[in-house]
Design brief:
- The protein is of the alpha/beta class.
- Helix content is 39%, strand content 19%.
- The protein contains 20 helices and 23 strands.
- Strand 22, helix 20 and strand 23 form a beta-alpha-beta unit.
- The chain starts with 5 loop residues before the first strand and ends in an 8-residue tail after the last strand.
Length: 522
């Protein structure tokens, strides 16, 4: 028997999500454990042959206010909170004929899903769980004696321990308590965020999202790192469907997230294809067909595209699929695939095929979380998408319509390239991308190097544009682009040397526009 194992004699079950609860309760009953239950859970268990003591038999009080009040009673909370080996507690609950509860199984009303699917205020308010979080907190507080189960995935572990030891060890109870407090903390955070938004505060911050689904991954970025994916929304990863291929890895998921964010900026545009490697785009193009968009994107940097993540904003057809499988890729993502395309992809059994449904969301997905030593950084997602009316022409030479289209295209891409980011483009196609360098000049040089390695044709660069995610602090970065042959520049502006940079552009007789918005991505 494990250390400090508490034998479970009595369990309280009250769950919204009733997945596997009948089989779990039957196993508890077969182990000789008495079951107390509430409302719909008690009804379901009874209908399936489980002997259940209804909550009102314990409280001696009926459920009232349409179920708002059912477990909030001293007979329940004293049964949960009575301390281990505490004579005073034992004497008082014996005097009041209150029975101890050793196992509490609770999951909560799905508040996150409700606010994503309805604006009905009454429905939203009624899905704020009161009794559930209260029982969870009380049980977790008393983990020294009580086992609190809030995840369906924990049912089998509990049953295994009951079968072997009659109950759970103190270590297991503490682990379950930690999970429970994480749930109530995130649940309260979601509700607080909704209230702030409802009351008109648009700057509400939900620090820790509710974990409604957790998927343990093989490992993290490297094999020695443990990892898991936590789904807290029906948006993004909560909406994707894997149609084929191996299990997604941590690195796959990271790259898919970068891919979804990029393609979201082109969701309503003409056929667009992007190839992502280590969260950076290495080729993006827009063409009249998705096939031509893929071929153009691939030509930007076929070397980097090897083993990359491919994403399209339109349905992938058979002709495109035939081209795609000529080069090794890890993941193919699109809003849909034709049946013929899926049949072609079957020839590559390990190729992961992902269909996405919903990317954008007005809810809590607008917040980005990053852990730091001792805390979290929280910020809004960078959802700014540049429009022509946002541009300020700062040079003597004005851009023509084609240059404006290419500059808008390039600046959208630069938003998704690691800083310092430089993107060269022509005819709505990237021709060179420089990412993640400590110097903007170095990024520009790398982008130019990529061009000569992969495209090289002088006609490909004649009349090209350059986009920078942040201002040029000196004119040297712009001079490098001018030497390459760039004819239009899009950048945020805002440097103390803007005048120097503008003068350099005017001397070269090129056009330059300021966006006033920076797109650092670290």
């Amino acid at each position: 028997m494990k250390k400090n194992t508490i034998k479970i004699k009595r369990a309280l079950i009250s769950v919204y999500d009733k997945t596997n609860i009948v089989s779990f309760a039957k196993s508890l009953e077969n182990a000789g454990i008495e079951i107390i239950s509430t409302g719909g859970t008690a009804k379901l268990l009874s209908e399936n042959g489980v002997t259940v003591k209804k909550i009102e038999e314990i409280t001696k009080f009926p459920e009232i206010l349409d179920g708002r009040v059912k477990t909030l009673h001293p007979n329940i909370y004293a049964g949960i909170l009575s301390r281990l080996n505490n004579i005073d507690d034992t004497n008082i609950i014996d005097k009041l004929s209150i029975q101890k509860i050793d196992l509490v199984v609770v999951n909560l009303y799905p508040f996150q899903k409700i606010i994503e699917t309805t604006d009905n205020l009454n429905e939203i308010i009624e899905n704020i769980d009161i009794g559930g979080p209260s029982m969870i907190r009380a049980s977790a507080k008393n983990y020294d004696r009580v086992s609190i189960v809030t995840k369906i995935d924990s049912y089998q572990m509990v049953l295994d321990n009951i079968k072997l030891n009659g109950g759970l060890s103190q270590e297991d109870r503490a682990d379950l308590a930690a999970e429970a407090y994480n749930l109530t903390s995130s649940y309260d955070g979601i509700i607080a965020g909704w209230f702030k938004k409802y009351l008109g505060n648009k700057n509400s911050e939900n620090i820790i999202p509710e974990i409604s689904n957790e998927r343990v991954l093989r490992y993290g970025e490297n094999p020695h790192q443990n990892a898991s994916l936590h789904i807290n929304s029906e948006n993004g990863f909560g909406s994707i469907e894997q149609l084929q291929g191996k299990e997604l890895s941590y690195n796959n998921i990271n790259d898919i997230d970068a891919s979804l964010q990029l393609i979201d900026d082109f969701k309503d545009d003409m056929p667009t294809f992007a190839i992502i490697k280590h969260t950076n785009p290495c080729g993006v193009a827009q063409r009249d067909t998705i096939l031509d968009a893929y071929k153009s994107a691939l030509s930007c940097d076929p070397t980097s595209a090897f083993g990359g993540i491919l994403i399209a904003n339109k349905t992938i057809d058979a002709l495109t699929a035939i081209e795609i499988i000529k080069v090794f890729s890890e993941v193919i993502i699109a809003p849909d695939f034709t049946e013929d395309a899926l049949q072609i992809f079957l020839n590559k059994k390990n190729l992961r095929i992902i269909k996405f449904n919903k990317i954008s969301n007005d809810g809590l997905d607008k917040k980005l979380l990053k852990s730091v030593f001792g805390g979290y950084l929280v910020q809004d997602r960078d959802e700014f998408v540049i429009q022509k009316e946002d541009l300020e022409v700062v040079t003597k030479k004005k851009p023509d319509h084609k240059q404006l289209d290419d500059m808008i295209f390039a600046f959208k891409i630069a938003k998704h390239v690691k800083s310092n980011a430089i993107v060269y483009a022509k005819n709505r196609k990237t021709i060179g991308i420089g990412a993640g360098q400590t110097s903007r000049v170095d990024s520009s040089k790398i982008a130019i190097q990529k061009f000569y390695e992969n495209l090289s044709d002088e006609k490909e660069k004649s009349g090209c544009v350059i986009a920078s995610d942040a201002f040029f602090p000196f004119s040297d970065g712009l001079s490098t682009a001018i030497d390459f042959g760039v004819e239009a520049v899009i950048q945020p502006g805002g440097s103390i040397r803007d005048d120097e940079v503008i003068t350099t552009a005017n001397k070269a007789e090129i056009t330059m526009v300021f966006t006033g918005v920076r797109h650092f991505k670290h």
